[in-house]
Amino acid sequence: MFYILECQHHKLVGRISFQSTGWGLDFTEGKLLDPEFGGDITVEFEDNHGSLPDYFELDETPIVSEDFIKVWKSLPIDNYQLFPVTVKYPDSQLQGYYILNIVGRVACIDLDASNLKMFKNVIVRIKKLVLNTDIQLVELFRANEFPLAIFISETIQQQLSLAKLSGLLMKPVDGWNDKHRF
């Protein structure tokens, strides 16, 4: 069984600043990036936040705390990269957060059985997700057909749940939809 890994806090408003020659979606494409990619990466908020969750997303990009990383590094996975960020508030800065870049994509969505909104052969909305039945056993990946979604195995889901990290939302893939993101 697979789960979608996403954040509970879709209300955080901020932006990620980094050097990119593309559209700024580099961390959501499932590609291995140069370790020096992005230069000095900052996460900027217009308002002060008392504390940030262990896992949150800005522009569909996962940003994680050091507590999250401690648990993450104990899992049976190695297809990810961590890029340190400086969190900037109007009157202060914070260290100890990282962009989590998931490396690897798997063709896994049953395009016929799923209820999808398409635009020029690109999935733009998922109303009901169904995976192919012959999907290979991988612990962590992005869907080739919809790389914004992060898929985790039941093993990873159980370990993350036990860790009681804040900000995580892990829903079973079967029947998942993206309506809560809008």
Which tags fit this structure?
182 residues; mainly beta; 2 helices; Immunity MXAN-0049 protein domain-containing protein; Imm11
- Please indicate the count of domains: 2
What's the order of the H and E elements? Answer: EEEEEHEEEEEEEHE
Q: Which class best fits the helix and strand makeup?
A: mainly beta
Computed over alpha carbons, the radius of gyration is 16 Å
Strand content: 35-45%
Total beta-strand segments: 13
Oligomer: single chain
Give the end-to-end Cα distance, rounded to a whole number of Å.
26 Å
Q: What value does the average pLDDT take?
A: 92
Helix content: under 10%
* SS element count, helices: 2
Strand order of the largest sheet: 2-3-6-7-5-4
Poorly predicted ranges (pLDDT <50, ≥5 residues)?
A: none
Overall spatial form: globular
Biggest β-sheet description:
6 strands, mixed
Protein name: Immunity MXAN-0049 protein domain-containing protein
InterPro entries: Imm11
Domain Immunity MXAN-0049 protein: 36-169
Pfam families: Imm11
